[in-house]
Amino acid sequence: MSQLKIAPTLVLDALSNSLGVDKGDIQLLSSIFSISGIFLAIPGGMLMAKIGAKRLIVLLMAVLALGNLLGYVFISNYPLLLLSRAVEGISFAMYLMVAMVYIRHWFADKGSGTALGFFGTFSALAQLIIFNISTTLIPLTGFRSIWIYLTVLSLLTMVLFIFVLEPIGTEKNTKHKPENFLTQALSDKKIWILTLSHGAMTFILFTMIQIGPFMMKDLYLLPDHLANAYASTFGLSGIISGVLAGIIIEKSKKPVIIGALGFILMLISVLIAVPLYSWITDAHLSTSIYIGWWFTISFGISFSYTAVMILASALSKKPEVTGYHISLVNTMYYFMIVVGSPLTIKVILSTSWSRGFTLLAGVAIIGLMGMIIYNVMQSKKGQ
């Protein structure tokens, strides 16, 4: 929610007017989150190996609270507000890694697929909450109030973590023999393959988040209200597909196959995106077709996301090594957030929608090949 809090139009416009800067500069307040992740994900793994998962996650909530509080104080000063967003981004860069370690610890024997599926809905759920707050509470209390809401929520979560979470890894075993956990993580070839596939998924995910309304308006010639309405189903479908992906993987015990299926669904979706408009001959069917398209690509993304996270978190039994594995995957995640949508949008604007979706198709194929290669590596290991 901290990441997305400036996304609603009401907050974006109010912030732009308050600071006296254009919306392009305001967007930098969002992208700095991902830029922080590129550089801090691996150090996050190092820090967890040194101080332990519980201490780190409590510290991250304190940092998130501090970042939001600084944002509230410096809301009218763009450089200092940008600095506060960078502080918030520290927690964003490391939190996913610690959360995955805990989920793997809690559900080591069974249930990790369902748990990761639920956890994977965080982005879509946060988007849903933030956009609802922007139309209810913020008009009553002012756009600055969202920084205070999130400061309080971060502090409450920090206190909850202190009393509820148990120590694992380094903090539980203070007399452990020193090990080079990073070297162990980097030497596993399978994590690099998973990182490649995860990068492909992220490239497509954040491209669709960015171009959704634009695509519905420019490619399918829909009015603004319908374009936004159809594109918004991506968030809702993300919650549904994320939960179902976890359950399906948990029941089938086939994360690699489900992950590959996810990339196939993404590939089909991007290949039919451009000709889809010409196939609609009945206006009454257009709603079902457009929503069905968004659900299809959403299921593909959720399948691959959950599968990769399950596989990456299961490569090692040591929480510290698992932390580094997740950090490597997340580094690619943050990198592709920064690279994916700008590159695709540039291709679309300079050439055509067909070329843009051809690029996405190529990315989906790379992700699919990654899952196939991973399966081959696993098969050889089992022989």
What proportion strand? under 5%
Radius of gyration: 21 Å
N-C termini distance = 46 Å
What is the level 1 CATH name of the largest domain? Mainly Alpha
Indicate the overall shape: globular
Question: Would you tell me which CATH topology of the largest domain applies?
Answer: Growth Hormone, Chain: A
Number of domains: 2
Residue stretches low in confidence (pLDDT < 50, at least 5 long) are none
Number of strands: 0
* Class computed from helices, strands and strand pairing: mainly alpha
CATH architecture of the largest domain: Up-down Bundle
Membrane topology: Multi-pass membrane protein
Subcellular location: Cell membrane
GO molecular function: transmembrane transporter activity
Main location: membrane
Briefly summarize what is shown.
One of its GO terms (cellular component) is plasma membrane. The chain crosses the membrane at residues 26-49, 56-75, 81-103, 115-134, 146-170, 191-209, 229-249, 256-279, 291-312, 324-345, 357-377. This protein is 83% helix and 0% strand.
